[in-house]
Write a structure and sequence with these properties.
Order of helices and strands: HHH
Largest sheet: none
Shape: elongated
Helix content: over 70%
Radius of gyration: 44 Å
Structural class: mainly alpha
Number of strands: 0
Length: about 120
């Protein structure tokens, strides 16, 4: 058995397989990137669809925003009305609490009974 010829034979077979693999890779790469710009065409098509979907979503968002905020102040009109109602209710509640606090203070500051259950005014 001649080791040198066996190694040369294995090397030539390996080189042949390597060349076939490189050729197959080049063919697949060429088929995947027909325009030759280095980016696979399927990826380019997917990215183009994603861009279109993104633009459509932005347009839809702008439409919804415009429909919800007709006066253009940055706050949806419905929320603006609710916040005004909430403010009025809060002001009314504060006024009622102040009124109740005054009434309670008046009751506490009223005439105090003196010793023996009398009203504290001399007779």
């Amino acid at each position: 058995m001649d080791w040198k010829s066996l190694l040369n034979d294995l090397k030539s077979q390996t080189d042949g397989v390597l060349k076939q693999a490189e050729a197959k890779y080049a063919e697949l790469k060429k088929n995947a990137d027909a325009d030759g710009d280095g980016v696979p065409d399927a990826l380019q098509a997917t990215m183009a669809e994603a861009r279109k979907a993104s633009e459509a979503a932005k347009a839809r968002y702008a439409e919804l925003k415009a429909a919800l905020d007709k006066d253009g102040d940055g706050v949806p009109d419905r929320l603006s009305g609710l916040s005004e109602q909430t403010k009025r209710a809060l002001d009314q509640a504060r006024a009622k609490v102040a009124e109740l606090a005054r009434a309670a203070a008046d009751r506490l500051d009223g005439p105090k009974p003196g010793p023996g259950g009398t009203s504290g005014t001399p007779a």
